[in-house]
Amino acid sequence: MLLAAWLVVSLGLAIAVHSYGYQDHATNADVIVVLGAGLNRNSRPTTAQRFRTRRAAELWHAGYAPYIICTGGKPYYATRSEADACKEILMAEGVPEHNILLEDQSRSTKENALYTRDIMEMNGWRTALVVSDRYHLLRANWLFNGVGIVVYTTPTTVAYLRPQQYAYYVAREVAALQWQAFNDFFNLPFTYVPIL
């Protein structure tokens, strides 16, 4: 019975992750936030990072917000942070350096939210337009709202992913959502789990 209930809940979460990711909530905000998407072994941005950052540049050029926060710390194998790679792409896309802020300490989406909140509070900002892959947005919305940020989400394309890759990332998000619910329910102090 418990296994059947867990499977039903997991399926419902997978549908929610997929459905939410296909909704674009882009609206004017105080700042655009690009969620980190890893680096390749040569410290170059991943395909996901490039898509997320270029979407943020489009939004900035369209006037959705005057500033962009690049998030993401330095993976253990890399020589720079995900935020630094994001900044490099933004500047190549015509966003001036003085309009870009770096949150380069985080190791997870939860930490993205916590450290981004700190930057926003220092600047008197309340609203954020968060950019990420479709499968990531439901959890990002939950976590950013959870730290007190008024958040709107906008997706990037997942056309670069094969169907089995997309299914893997959705399943990973389902596991991450379940872990976050457990973490929140028991008020645990964890902000980073390497496998999630």
CATH architecture of the domain at 22-155: 3-Layer(aba) Sandwich
Q: Which residue ranges are poorly predicted, with pLDDT under 50 across at least 5 consecutive positions?
A: none
Query: Reading side by side through the largest sheet, how are the strands ordered?
Result: 3-2-1-4-5
Strand content: 5-15%
CATH superfamily of the domain at 22-155: HUPs
Number of helices: 6
Mean pLDDT figure = 96
Instruction: State the total count of DSSP E strands.
Output: 5
Helix fraction, binned, reads: 40-55%
> Which fold name fills CATH's third level, the topology of the domain at 22-155?
Rossmann fold
Task: Characterize the structure shown.
This protein is α/β, with parallel strands linked by helices and 196 residues long. Helices cover 48% and strands 14% of the residues. It has a domain at 22-155: HUPs (Rossmann fold, 3-Layer(aba) Sandwich). It has helices spanning 2-21, 47-61, 82-92, 109-123, 137-146, 163-185; strands at residues 31-34, 67-71, 100-103, 127-133, 150-156. The chain has a five-stranded parallel beta sheet with strand order 3-2-1-4-5. The longest helix has 23 residues, at 163-185. The radius of gyration is 16 Å and the shape is globular. The mean pLDDT is 96.
Summary tags:
196 residues; alpha/beta; Rossmann fold; five-stranded parallel beta sheet; 6 helices; 48% helix
